[in-house]
Specification:
It contains 2 helices and 9 strands; from the N terminus they run βαβββββαβββ. By secondary structure, it is α+β, with helices and mostly antiparallel strands. It folds into 2 domains: about 60 residues, Roll (2,3-Dihydroxybiphenyl 1,2-Dioxygenase, domain 1), CATH 3.10.180; about 55 residues, 2,3-Dihydroxybiphenyl 1,2-Dioxygenase, domain 1. Strands 1, 2, 3, 4 and 5 form a 5-stranded mixed β-sheet that branches. The longest helix is centred in the last third of the chain and has 13 residues. The protein is globular and about 50 Å long.
């Protein structure tokens, strides 16, 4: 069994698409728009075939502290090696994104960093 895709609601779908394309080399489909419901989505495909669906619909609100609620906790991207983790983390920091932790080796042996994206969602960068 494999996970087909992960989905997350975002407030700014175009900004979300740009973020994942620019920093994580995602390839986006042309998008979907259900005019009557106001629902929009993009499927983003990453190296290795993993897919993320980013979605938006009118009148959404965010309840609870980011990263500390039931549901989506973080998304993790493997970038191949420790140097790539460091380089991408520094690129994101230089572009104004908050680095929450790392780069570091965690107690369970992962080399990773964690950043907040433009909406405060946690994005882990690992080997």
């Amino acid at each position: 069994m494999t996970i087909e895709h992960i989905a997350m609601y975002v407030s700014d779908i175009e900004k979300a698409k740009h973020f994942f394309v620019k920093y994580f080399n995602a390839v986006s489909n042309n998008g979907y728009h259900n005019v009557s419901a106001g629902f929009r989505s993009y499927f983003l495909t990453f190296d290795g075939g993993a897919r993320l669906e980013i979605m938006n619909k009118p009148n959404m609100s965010s309840d609870g502290e980011k990263g500390n609620h039931f549901g989506y906790a973080h998304i993790s991207f493997s970038v191949g090696n420790e140097e790539n983790v460091r380089q991408l983390t520094e690129k994101l920091r230089a572009d104004g994104y908050q680095v929450v932790s790392g780069p570091r080796t965690t107690g369970d042996g992962y080399y990773e960093s964690c950043i907040c994206d433009f909406e405060g969602n946690l994005v882990e960068i690992t080997v």
